[in-house]
Specification:
By secondary structure, this protein is of the alpha/beta class. The chain has helices spanning 31-41, 64-67, 80-90, 102-108, 110-119, 164-170, 184-196, 218-221, 280-287, 310-325, 330-335; strands spanning 52-56, 71-74, 95-101, 124-129, 175-180, 201-206, 230-232, 240-241, 247-252, 255-260, 297-304.
Length: 343
């Protein structure tokens, strides 16, 4: 069964998903853009409004459920994945969205994050990655680059950073994608793709924290720089980028590198790596473009595959158990076996 889609009697709009709460993020925060795109996309998905659930952990991003006029749950630090799993198993008809940050899901929530991905529960993860702890005022996070100077690393971070897409692929995620807060149209399309995927969708969103980590993603968002530093992925298309579309990704063995194409270059389009979003090896190579200044950052769908969905397997198993052993008796189960009476 595909994700819950139905014909709506009333055409929903963005305002139907905007709550009456005052949005309290710092002026200019990238979270505003993400909120706006989600509110624009939800009315187009054909899902009854009462079937949406937004679940978060702790962090600036985790205020999200308050600003969405849907069912929601503001959980504790790192536990959004566990809560979302319970919600989806209890009612598989719901469209469940996890909103989390790099600190929330890559640190204390890391264990829940990887197990949600490997189980492939049919939920959607939106990970806001600003590479800093914003809510707690600017400490380095699990995705902060090496040498990052922050309040908690005054001489520079010594920790090798987590790479969220690579981590997701390592956990055998069935859908891995990336977008950027300042690319609203692209973000809308990738959110729609995330929804259409049957299984756990993982979408990393580069999000600027202008107070504690302003400019972290400038090379991907500045109008004079982004064309030469962002690779927009299209399934079945060669990997071309650059202001003049004269750069591409060539694979020399297992090593990706940027080459010049066209009249002035020795390379042609036929020499370029073609994106295949069903190829785990290509996705893995692309995920490791992260933190490399000699390669563009890929945005779009890195990887997507069809895979059994956890809640459907669980439902099948429950029906099989009833067929084999009959309908259970909870009271009998609780009172049989070794019991103790406490006086």
């Amino acid at each position: 069964m595909a994700k819950n889609e139905t014909t709506m009697e009333k055409q929903l709009t963005r305002m139907d998903f905007a709550s009456d709460q005052v949005v309290k993020w710092c002026p200019g925060c990238g979270d505003y853009s993400i909120l706006a795109q989600v509110q624009k996309v939800f009315p187009t998905l054909g899902i009854p409004k009462e079937n949406y659930v937004v679940i978060s952990g702790i962090g600036c991003s985790s205020r999200f459920p308050y600003y969405m006029d849907t069912y929601g749950f503001h959980g504790i630090h790192g536990r959004a994945a566990a809560i979302a799993t319970g919600v989806k198993l209890a009612n598989p008809e719901l469209s469940v969205w996890i909103v989390t940050g790099d600190g929330d899901s890559m640190s204390i929530g890391g264990n829940h994050f990887i197990h949600l991905l490997r189980r492939n529960v049919d939920v959607n993860i939106l990970l806001f990655n600003n590479r800093i702890y914003g809510l707690t005022k600017g400490q380095y996070s699990p995705t902060s680059p090496l040498g990052k100077v922050t309040k908690s690393t005054p001489m520079g971070s010594l920790d090798h950073p987590f790479n969220p897409p690579a981590l997701a692929l390592g956990a055998d995620a069935s859908f891995v994608a990336r977008t950027i807060d300042k690319e609203p149209k692209h973000m809308q399309e990738i959110i729609k793709r995330s929804h259409k995927h049957h299984g756990t969708s993982f979408l990393e969103i580069y999000q600027n924290c202008l107070i504690f980590n302003d400019g972290e993603f400038d090379r991907y968002t500045d109008k004079d720089k982004k064309a030469d530093n962002v690779l927009t992925l299209e399934h079945g298309k060669p990997m071309i980028f650059g202001k003049n579309k004269d750069k591409g990704i060539h694979l020399a063995g297992n090593n990706p590198r940027v080459v010049s194409i066209g009249a002035e270059g020795q390379w042609s389009v036929d020499d370029l790596l073609v994106h295949d979003e069903h190829d785990w090896i290509i996705a893995s190579i692309l995920s490791h473009f992260t933190y490399r200044e000699d390669l563009p950052t890929p945005i779009g769908v890195l990887y997507a595959k069809a895979q059994s969905v956890y809640e459907e397997l669980l439902d099948d198993q429950c029906h099989q158990a009833v067929k084999l052993y009959g309908k259970g008796d909870l009271q009998k189960l609780m009172s049989e076996g070794d019991t103790w009476v406490v006086k």
